[in-house]
Amino acid sequence: MRHHTIAEVMSRDPATARVDTGFAELVRLMAARSVSALPVLDEDGRVLGVVSEADLLAKESVQERPHAISALLRRHAERVRARGTTAGELMSSPAVTIAPEATIPHGARMMVDRRVKLLPVIDPDARLLGVVSRSDLLKMFSRPDSEILTEIADEVFMRGLGIGTEGVRITLAGGIVTLEGRVERRSWATVADALTRQIDGVVDVHTLLDYDWDDAAITIPEAMVVDITHEPRR
């Protein structure tokens, strides 16, 4: 099953900062480009970290309540960052990054697991190629219906099951796929459902496929069962 990659949805001309970019300029850049985070690069274009709105707000919260530093920022590294005035001092480092060939589901899992809103996309030398945001990943759910339906027919029924779509009707509405018709085996209906759910842009699947043969009901005669829990006889 082929998933679309980060390279297909990433922004290739992102706003960036240098280590010496000042606080006010960071705020201006984020507002001008309507972004919530900026990759911080060295002079060779390598990603050193990411500075986000949360990093900037931490500084503001300290200035608002100077006596609450220990309560707001418990760790020493956070206290140092909050006192910073440049991207290099305020950024989170090392950055959580991703490769361009990574799949979109992998990128989504990284964002959820690492609790980040933006992933710098880097080459093997850590140089910035682009960035991918949550909204970039969600673009898959705005793909044309015709594109998704073609991919289901090709990837699920032609390549995945090798049976084609004869006798099968595939419809799509609001991201929800309905599979109707008849296939030879019950297991094929089960696999079709599972593979369709992996197609980028599919929200849910309703499988209404009938089948000629319930191969899930096959039982193995007791005489054919081999006990592999004991040492073989010598």
UniProtKB/TrEMBL annotation:
Q: Which residues form the BON domain?
A: 145-213
Q: What is this protein called?
A: BON domain-containing protein
SMART domains under this entry?
A: CBS
Tell me the InterPro entries matching this sequence: BON_dom, CBS_dom, CBS_dom_sf, Diverse_CBS-Domain, UCP036990_CBS_BON
- The segment(s) forming the CBS domain are 10-69, 91-147
Q: What's the superkingdom here?
A: Bacteria
Record key words, sorted:
CBS domain
Record-linked CDD domains: CBS_pair_BON_assoc
Q: Does the keyword Acyltransferase apply?
A: no
Q: In this entry, which stretches build a coiled coil?
A: none
Q: Does the keyword Zinc apply?
A: no
Its lineage reads: Bacteria, Bacillati, Actinomycetota, Actinomycetes, Pseudonocardiales
